[in-house]
């Protein structure tokens, strides 16, 4: 297998190149618009609100509007298992990674490493590169992320016991509701009342909740909203980057060490462990499922994790520097990870 040829083929694949350039160009557009004050200081927050309350829930829900088969069901369930297991593994692994730090600094760096911006940064990129299948897998994988973020993450950063408001946040935010609604329809579509629909001149039966087939008038506006998720997220990321001093962040050695672990080491841990589990048949997954996990885990600092650190006055300046530097490295490293994933695909290690 000629790795050079694989890299060449990957770097000349217009779908992959377009996905990479789209994210980079639009992030720079957001940066430029904020620097020129075309977007004001509140713009990134407003855009984030639209993305988190409308665009990403629509993206998560519409991704489940597809037929179910044995393979996709198995992949989804395996990703659900891994999405829970990996956070337990990272809780253990980050301890020696940050052993040289003590107290609050160690706690902050560990939590920021465990929880990346999977929803805001990862899913939009996955949607562009791997389509609805990738988004569906990402949404299932993210269930474990939200459980641990609003439980372990909160407890570790606050020093308090789990509060009722966090349980409410965990299960009642729009993205989680959309994910579980879509997952229910996808899993139970064979058991729900069926509706006859004309598809390509032939009559087919679909569950009445498969609105992509039974109610296109309802599905289409959700699809338009879903397609807004990526560009709006990238503009918001760019606008946010324009607010923080890169010079200060680059002087912080701890932020560099954190970003290296977050953007490179954490994805490598996932690749190695999933290769072993796949080879032994313990947890077989497809290439798209692997790619989904790697991109989700190669994301920069999670907004909620950073908010915890700032709210509870735990290394707020370090957190801001880590967030900025990891976001820049995340943008730069994403093309690298997509190329690595294409190399792995060509070796046919995963189905």
Automatic annotation (TrEMBL):
InterPro entries: Mem_transp_PIN-like (IPR004776), Na+/solute_symporter_sf (IPR038770). The lineage of its organism: Bacteria, Bacillati, Bacillota, Bacilli, Bacillales. It is a multi-pass membrane protein. Belongs to the auxin efflux carrier (TC 2.A.69) family. Keywords: Cell membrane, Membrane, Transmembrane, Transmembrane helix, Transport. The chain crosses the membrane at residues 16-34, 46-68, 80-99, 111-130, 136-155, 171-192, 224-242, 263-283, 289-310, 322-344. One of its GO terms (biological process) is transmembrane transport. Gene3D superfamilies: 1.20.1530.20. This is Malate permease. It holds the Pfam family Mem_trans. It is found in: Cell membrane. PANTHER family: AUXIN EFFLUX CARRIER FAMILY PROTEIN, SLR1864 PROTEIN. One of its GO terms (cellular component) is plasma membrane.
